[in-house]
Amino acid sequence: xxxxxxxxxxxxxxxxxxxxxxxxxxxxxxxxxxxxxxxxxxxxxxxxxxxxxxxxxxxxxxxxxxxxxxxxxxxxxxxxxxxxxxxxxxxxxxxxxxxxxxxxxxxxxxxxxxxxxxxxxxxxxxxxxxxxxxxxxxxxxxxxxxxxxxxxxxxxxxxxxxxxxxxxxxxxxxxxxxxxxxxxxxxxxxxxxxxxxxxxxxxxxxxxxxxxxxxxxxxxxxxxxxxxxxxxxxxxxxxxxxxxxxxxxxxxxxxxxxxxxxxxxxxxxxxxxxxxxxxxxxxxxxxxxxxxxxx
Length: 295
Prior knowledge:
Layout: H1 5-31, H2 42-96, H3 103-124, E1 127-128, E2 131-132, E3 144-147, E4 150-153, E5 161-165, E6 168-171, H4 176-180, H5 188-201, H6 204-257, H7 261-285, H8 290-294
Antiparallel strand pairs: 1-2, 3-4, 5-6
Protein backbone atom coordinates (compact mmCIF):
# COMPACT_ATOMS: atom_id res chain seq x y z
CA UNK A 1 0.00 0.00 0.00
CA UNK A 2 1.30 3.44 -0.88
CA UNK A 3 0.43 5.94 1.87
CA UNK A 4 1.45 9.50 1.10
CA UNK A 5 2.24 10.62 4.65
CA UNK A 6 4.22 13.62 3.40
CA UNK A 7 1.31 14.78 1.28
CA UNK A 8 -1.07 14.36 4.22
CA UNK A 9 1.27 16.22 6.59
CA UNK A 10 1.72 18.97 4.04
CA UNK A 11 -2.03 19.20 3.58
CA UNK A 12 -2.66 19.49 7.32
CA UNK A 13 0.03 22.15 7.58
CA UNK A 14 -1.61 24.04 4.73
CA UNK A 15 -4.96 23.82 6.53
CA UNK A 16 -3.42 25.20 9.73
CA UNK A 17 -1.69 28.03 7.87
CA UNK A 18 -4.82 28.94 5.92
CA UNK A 19 -6.94 28.78 9.08
CA UNK A 20 -4.52 31.14 10.86
CA UNK A 21 -4.54 33.58 7.96
CA UNK A 22 -8.32 33.41 7.79
CA UNK A 23 -8.69 34.00 11.53
CA UNK A 24 -6.30 36.98 11.43
CA UNK A 25 -8.08 38.53 8.46
CA UNK A 26 -11.50 37.98 10.07
CA UNK A 27 -10.28 39.64 13.31
CA UNK A 28 -8.94 42.63 11.38
CA UNK A 29 -12.21 43.03 9.47
CA UNK A 30 -14.34 42.77 12.63
CA UNK A 31 -12.21 45.10 14.79
CA UNK A 32 -10.72 47.42 12.21
CA UNK A 33 -7.28 46.86 13.78
CA UNK A 34 -4.25 45.25 12.22
CA UNK A 35 -2.21 44.65 15.40
CA UNK A 36 -3.51 42.02 17.77
CA UNK A 37 -0.28 41.32 19.65
CA UNK A 38 2.93 43.40 19.71
CA UNK A 39 4.80 40.78 17.71
CA UNK A 40 2.53 41.51 14.72
CA UNK A 41 4.42 44.80 14.25
CA UNK A 42 6.69 45.73 17.20
CA UNK A 43 7.51 49.21 15.93
CA UNK A 44 3.89 50.10 15.24
CA UNK A 45 2.78 48.59 18.56
CA UNK A 46 5.31 50.73 20.44
CA UNK A 47 4.24 53.82 18.51
CA UNK A 48 0.60 53.07 19.36
CA UNK A 49 1.38 52.91 23.08
CA UNK A 50 3.19 56.27 22.94
CA UNK A 51 0.39 57.86 20.93
CA UNK A 52 -2.32 56.53 23.23
CA UNK A 53 -0.48 58.07 26.17
CA UNK A 54 -0.19 61.36 24.30
CA UNK A 55 -3.89 61.32 23.45
CA UNK A 56 -4.70 60.63 27.11
CA UNK A 57 -2.66 63.66 28.15
CA UNK A 58 -4.34 65.85 25.53
CA UNK A 59 -7.76 64.62 26.66
CA UNK A 60 -6.84 65.64 30.22
CA UNK A 61 -5.88 69.10 28.94
CA UNK A 62 -9.23 69.32 27.16
CA UNK A 63 -11.12 68.48 30.35
CA UNK A 64 -9.02 70.99 32.31
CA UNK A 65 -9.70 73.58 29.63
CA UNK A 66 -13.43 72.97 29.86
CA UNK A 67 -13.29 73.45 33.64
CA UNK A 68 -11.18 76.61 33.34
CA UNK A 69 -13.41 78.03 30.61
CA UNK A 70 -16.53 77.67 32.78
CA UNK A 71 -14.80 79.19 35.83
CA UNK A 72 -13.38 82.10 33.84
CA UNK A 73 -16.81 82.84 32.40
CA UNK A 74 -18.23 82.89 35.94
CA UNK A 75 -15.41 85.15 37.13
CA UNK A 76 -15.92 87.51 34.21
CA UNK A 77 -19.66 87.77 34.87
CA UNK A 78 -19.20 88.33 38.60
CA UNK A 79 -16.46 90.92 38.13
CA UNK A 80 -18.71 92.69 35.64
CA UNK A 81 -21.40 92.84 38.34
CA UNK A 82 -18.85 94.16 40.85
CA UNK A 83 -17.74 96.89 38.43
CA UNK A 84 -21.39 97.85 37.83
CA UNK A 85 -22.15 98.02 41.55
CA UNK A 86 -19.06 100.08 42.30
CA UNK A 87 -20.07 102.44 39.49
CA UNK A 88 -23.52 102.73 41.06
CA UNK A 89 -22.03 103.30 44.52
CA UNK A 90 -19.79 106.07 43.17
CA UNK A 91 -22.78 107.73 41.54
CA UNK A 92 -24.90 107.54 44.69
CA UNK A 93 -22.12 108.76 46.98
CA UNK A 94 -21.24 111.62 44.64
CA UNK A 95 -24.88 112.66 44.48
CA UNK A 96 -25.13 112.67 48.27
CA UNK A 97 -22.05 114.86 48.69
CA UNK A 98 -22.35 118.54 49.41
CA UNK A 99 -24.96 120.70 51.10
CA UNK A 100 -27.70 120.35 48.49
CA UNK A 101 -29.23 116.94 49.47
CA UNK A 102 -31.84 117.09 52.20
CA UNK A 103 -32.18 114.52 54.95
CA UNK A 104 -34.70 112.28 53.14
CA UNK A 105 -32.38 112.22 50.12
CA UNK A 106 -29.40 111.36 52.31
CA UNK A 107 -31.38 108.60 54.03
CA UNK A 108 -32.40 107.13 50.68
CA UNK A 109 -28.80 107.30 49.40
CA UNK A 110 -27.55 105.71 52.61
CA UNK A 111 -30.04 102.82 52.23
CA UNK A 112 -29.02 102.36 48.60
CA UNK A 113 -25.34 102.17 49.57
CA UNK A 114 -26.16 99.58 52.24
CA UNK A 115 -27.91 97.49 49.60
CA UNK A 116 -24.92 97.81 47.25
CA UNK A 117 -22.60 96.74 50.08
CA UNK A 118 -24.70 93.62 50.70
CA UNK A 119 -24.79 92.85 46.98
CA UNK A 120 -21.01 93.22 46.72
CA UNK A 121 -20.59 90.88 49.71
CA UNK A 122 -22.69 88.33 47.81
CA UNK A 123 -20.56 88.89 44.69
CA UNK A 124 -17.23 88.34 46.41
CA UNK A 125 -18.65 85.25 48.12
CA UNK A 126 -19.92 83.82 44.81
CA UNK A 127 -19.64 80.08 44.38
CA UNK A 128 -19.26 78.07 41.20
CA UNK A 129 -19.11 74.32 40.80
CA UNK A 130 -19.02 73.88 44.57
CA UNK A 131 -16.16 76.30 45.28
CA UNK A 132 -15.73 80.00 46.06
CA UNK A 133 -14.39 81.98 43.10
CA UNK A 134 -12.57 84.66 45.13
CA UNK A 135 -11.01 82.54 47.89
CA UNK A 136 -7.67 81.67 46.31
CA UNK A 137 -6.87 78.05 47.13
CA UNK A 138 -9.33 78.04 50.05
CA UNK A 139 -12.21 77.19 47.74
CA UNK A 140 -14.37 75.80 50.55
CA UNK A 141 -14.10 78.95 52.71
CA UNK A 142 -16.28 82.01 52.16
CA UNK A 143 -13.86 84.86 51.36
CA UNK A 144 -15.52 87.58 53.42
CA UNK A 145 -17.52 87.40 56.62
CA UNK A 146 -18.28 89.72 59.49
CA UNK A 147 -16.30 88.50 62.49
CA UNK A 148 -17.00 90.43 65.67
CA UNK A 149 -18.67 93.15 63.61
CA UNK A 150 -15.61 93.55 61.34
CA UNK A 151 -15.41 92.51 57.69
CA UNK A 152 -12.67 89.85 57.56
CA UNK A 153 -11.01 88.12 54.61
CA UNK A 154 -10.87 84.43 55.53
CA UNK A 155 -9.22 82.92 52.44
CA UNK A 156 -5.73 83.27 50.95
CA UNK A 157 -3.96 85.15 48.19
CA UNK A 158 -2.88 82.19 46.06
CA UNK A 159 -5.05 81.53 43.01
CA UNK A 160 -5.83 77.97 41.98
CA UNK A 161 -4.13 77.11 38.68
CA UNK A 162 -5.01 74.49 36.11
CA UNK A 163 -2.72 73.24 33.35
CA UNK A 164 -4.51 73.65 30.02
CA UNK A 165 -1.58 72.78 27.75
CA UNK A 166 2.02 71.71 28.22
CA UNK A 167 3.65 74.35 30.46
CA UNK A 168 0.60 76.65 30.16
CA UNK A 169 -1.64 77.36 33.13
CA UNK A 170 -4.53 79.71 33.87
CA UNK A 171 -6.03 80.74 37.21
CA UNK A 172 -9.63 79.79 37.81
CA UNK A 173 -9.95 81.38 41.25
CA UNK A 174 -8.82 84.81 42.41
CA UNK A 175 -7.66 86.60 45.54
CA UNK A 176 -10.74 88.50 46.68
CA UNK A 177 -8.78 90.68 49.08
CA UNK A 178 -6.52 91.92 46.28
CA UNK A 179 -9.65 93.22 44.52
CA UNK A 180 -11.65 94.45 47.49
CA UNK A 181 -8.79 95.96 49.48
CA UNK A 182 -5.46 95.91 47.67
CA UNK A 183 -3.07 98.24 49.46
CA UNK A 184 -5.87 100.30 51.04
CA UNK A 185 -6.20 100.32 54.83
CA UNK A 186 -9.76 98.96 54.60
CA UNK A 187 -11.70 96.71 52.24
CA UNK A 188 -14.51 98.06 50.08
CA UNK A 189 -17.20 96.54 52.32
CA UNK A 190 -15.83 98.40 55.33
CA UNK A 191 -15.55 101.51 53.17
CA UNK A 192 -19.22 101.22 52.26
CA UNK A 193 -20.11 100.76 55.93
CA UNK A 194 -18.41 104.09 56.55
CA UNK A 195 -20.13 105.70 53.57
CA UNK A 196 -23.54 104.53 54.75
CA UNK A 197 -23.00 106.38 58.02
CA UNK A 198 -21.29 109.39 56.42
CA UNK A 199 -24.02 109.93 53.85
CA UNK A 200 -26.74 109.61 56.51
CA UNK A 201 -25.10 112.33 58.62
CA UNK A 202 -23.89 114.51 55.75
CA UNK A 203 -20.19 114.10 56.65
CA UNK A 204 -18.72 115.43 53.41
CA UNK A 205 -15.10 114.80 54.40
CA UNK A 206 -15.81 111.12 55.07
CA UNK A 207 -17.93 110.92 51.92
CA UNK A 208 -15.00 112.28 49.88
CA UNK A 209 -12.59 109.76 51.40
CA UNK A 210 -15.08 106.97 50.72
CA UNK A 211 -15.47 108.05 47.08
CA UNK A 212 -11.68 107.99 46.63
CA UNK A 213 -11.54 104.47 48.11
CA UNK A 214 -14.40 103.32 45.82
CA UNK A 215 -12.54 104.68 42.78
CA UNK A 216 -9.45 102.68 43.73
CA UNK A 217 -11.60 99.57 44.22
CA UNK A 218 -13.20 100.24 40.83
CA UNK A 219 -9.74 100.34 39.20
CA UNK A 220 -8.73 97.09 40.90
CA UNK A 221 -11.92 95.36 39.76
CA UNK A 222 -11.44 96.55 36.17
CA UNK A 223 -7.85 95.27 36.19
CA UNK A 224 -9.00 91.91 37.55
CA UNK A 225 -11.63 91.63 34.83
CA UNK A 226 -9.01 92.51 32.21
CA UNK A 227 -6.80 89.73 33.57
CA UNK A 228 -9.68 87.28 33.26
CA UNK A 229 -10.15 88.42 29.66
CA UNK A 230 -6.47 87.84 28.95
CA UNK A 231 -6.70 84.37 30.51
CA UNK A 232 -9.72 83.59 28.36
CA UNK A 233 -7.75 84.53 25.25
CA UNK A 234 -4.82 82.38 26.39
CA UNK A 235 -7.18 79.50 27.11
CA UNK A 236 -8.87 79.76 23.71
CA UNK A 237 -5.48 79.63 21.97
CA UNK A 238 -4.38 76.64 24.08
CA UNK A 239 -7.62 74.74 23.47
CA UNK A 240 -7.32 75.27 19.74
CA UNK A 241 -3.73 74.00 19.83
CA UNK A 242 -4.65 70.99 22.00
CA UNK A 243 -7.49 70.05 19.65
CA UNK A 244 -5.14 70.25 16.66
CA UNK A 245 -2.56 68.08 18.42
CA UNK A 246 -5.28 65.63 19.36
CA UNK A 247 -6.46 65.29 15.78
CA UNK A 248 -2.88 64.78 14.60
CA UNK A 249 -2.17 62.16 17.27
CA UNK A 250 -5.41 60.32 16.48
CA UNK A 251 -4.50 60.25 12.77
CA UNK A 252 -1.03 58.89 13.54
CA UNK A 253 -2.51 56.28 15.89
CA UNK A 254 -4.94 55.21 13.20
CA UNK A 255 -2.08 54.90 10.72
CA UNK A 256 -0.10 52.80 13.20
CA UNK A 257 -2.76 50.34 14.32
CA UNK A 258 -5.78 50.45 12.02
CA UNK A 259 -6.23 47.86 9.31
CA UNK A 260 -6.75 48.55 5.65
CA UNK A 261 -10.26 47.10 5.47
CA UNK A 262 -10.27 46.63 1.71
CA UNK A 263 -6.98 44.73 1.92
CA UNK A 264 -8.15 42.74 4.95
CA UNK A 265 -11.37 41.70 3.20
CA UNK A 266 -9.40 40.60 0.13
CA UNK A 267 -7.01 38.57 2.29
CA UNK A 268 -9.91 37.07 4.21
CA UNK A 269 -11.51 35.85 0.98
CA UNK A 270 -8.19 34.53 -0.31
CA UNK A 271 -7.51 32.75 2.99
CA UNK A 272 -11.00 31.27 2.96
CA UNK A 273 -10.47 29.97 -0.58
CA UNK A 274 -7.07 28.52 0.36
CA UNK A 275 -8.51 26.96 3.52
CA UNK A 276 -11.32 25.26 1.62
CA UNK A 277 -8.92 24.07 -1.07
CA UNK A 278 -6.57 22.59 1.55
CA UNK A 279 -9.48 20.81 3.23
CA UNK A 280 -10.57 19.41 -0.10
CA UNK A 281 -7.08 18.22 -0.95
CA UNK A 282 -6.62 16.41 2.36
CA UNK A 283 -10.06 14.87 2.13
CA UNK A 284 -9.28 13.59 -1.36
CA UNK A 285 -5.92 12.15 -0.29
CA UNK A 286 -7.61 10.09 2.43
CA UNK A 287 -9.95 8.26 0.00
CA UNK A 288 -8.16 4.91 -0.25
CA UNK A 289 -9.69 2.21 -2.51
CA UNK A 290 -9.34 -1.66 -2.25
CA UNK A 291 -7.13 -1.56 -5.32
CA UNK A 292 -4.72 0.71 -3.44
CA UNK A 293 -4.35 -1.98 -0.73
CA UNK A 294 -3.68 -4.75 -3.32
CA UNK A 295 -0.84 -2.89 -4.96
